[in-house]
Write a structure and sequence with these properties.
mainly alpha, 10 helices, 2 strands, elongated
């Protein structure tokens, strides 16, 4: 779980309690929906009175922003690192696929709330959310543009890059809807399946699988370091 932004004067206990409130809210929002979950419901589930709850979350809207940030902030950090790697276009796009699917698999309830409830955000909160979402989309679009400049993609540069970006995102974003009830599948395996479909549609030449395997492991080591985890078998989609 990404570290919460720290404020001066706040104790470790404060941040532990705040993380617990966010965890509770994620579970309630994903089951009942944002509009049908009241502050009193969250307080009761977290074991906090209304006044204490507001001390930790500020407002219900701020709580929804925190849930969105748990998904978007790691995505932006990892995407920024991936696009700068000295690896092939195909490998970097595959790694973007893996980091997006990692969030979907490991923060399934967060992603449900993220995709279903973002319209509830208003004013500055909504603008901040849109800005972060656009930044991530621009990483994908920029990488596709780089592939086109290198002569690796077919099609018209402007119109097809926009469509390719949307196709890439749509291929991944709604994985959460069918995640349960399917056979066990590693994030890397699911990403390979998606990217085979995607690359077959846009690449001018087939992927060099031997080179891709070596480069992917190099890129994954960067992602493991960003997540602060040791090398291990990749997360699986559990039935």
């Amino acid at each position: 779980m990404p570290a919460t932004r720290r404020e001066r004067g706040k104790t470790e206990r404060y941040y532990r309690m705040r993380e617990n409130v966010v965890d509770v809210a994620v579970e309630l929002f994903s089951k009942r929906g944002y509009a049908d979950t009241g502050v009193a419901d969250i307080g009761e589930a977290a074991g906090l009175a209304r006044g204490a709850l507001y001390y930790y979350i500020g407002s219900k809207d701020a709580l929804l922003v925190e849930i969105h940030d748990r998904v978007m902030d790691p995505l932006l950090k990892e995407a920024a690192a991936i696009v700068e790697l000295d690896l092939s276009f195909q490998t970097r796009l595959r790694l973007l696929s893996e980091c997006l699917l990692w969030q979907i698999v490991n923060r399934h309830d967060h992603v449900w709330v993220f995709l279903h409830e973002y319209r509830q955000l208003q004013g500055e909160y909504r603008e901040l959310f849109r800005e972060k979402r656009h930044r991530f989309e621009s990483r994908i679009r920029g990488l596709l543009a780089d592939g086109h400049r290198r002569g690796l993609l077919r099609g018209r540069p402007q119109e097809d890059l926009e469509l390719a970006t949307l196709a890439f995102l749509n291929l991944h974003n709604y994985t959460y809807q069918w995640l349960a009830g399917h056979r066990v599948m590693r994030v890397e395996e699911l990403s390979a399946f998606y990217c085979d479909i995607f690359f077959d549609g846009i690449l001018a030449e087939p992927v060099d699988q031997e080179r891709a395997g070596s480069e992917l492991e190099q890129g994954r080591s960067v992602l493991r370091e960003l997540r602060g985890v040791k090398p291990e078998v990749g997360p699986r989609v559990e039935a």
